[in-house]
Amino acid sequence: MLQEIIDIICEYVEIDPADVKPESSLRNDIGATSFDLMNVAVAVEEKYRISVPNSVLPRIKTVGDIVALLEK
């Protein structure tokens, strides 16, 4: 699942997938903008057929946070 999330992130942010780790900050390490993060959220929702409440989005800070959300 981690690799799938990394692949989704790399569709929207220009970064080498090898540089993306579970502890990578979406904003500080990866350089994702708010627009990028919204696109990633939509792609994750579509791929995993889930709905992420808007209230949860501000708490997602790292790649690992996305994986943890999906594992719940």
Layout: helices, strands, pairs:
Blueprint: H1 2-12, H2 34-48, H3 63-71
Helix pairs in contact: 1-2
Note down, in words, how this protein is organized.
This protein has 3 helices and no strands. The protein has one domain (2-71): Orthogonal Bundle (Non-ribosomal Peptide Synthetase Peptidyl Carrier Protein, Chain A). The radius of gyration is 11 Å and the shape is globular. Helix content is 49%, strand content 0%.
In short:
By secondary structure, the protein is mostly helical. It has one domain (2-71): ACP-like (Non-ribosomal Peptide Synthetase Peptidyl Carrier Protein, Chain A, Orthogonal Bundle). The protein has helices spanning 2-12, 34-48, 63-71.
Q: Helix segment count?
A: 3
Distance between termini? 13 Å
| Poorly predicted parts | none
CATH class: Mainly Alpha
- Overall number of domains: 1
Please give the CATH architecture. Answer: Orthogonal Bundle
* CATH homologous superfamily label: ACP-like
Shape: globular
Number of strands: 0
Main pleated-sheet profile: none
Task: Quote the average pLDDT.
Answer: 94
Strand content: under 5%
Helix-strand pattern, N to C? Answer: HHH
CATH topology: Non-ribosomal Peptide Synthetase Peptidyl Carrier Protein, Chain A
Helical content stands at: 40-55%
The structural class is mainly alpha
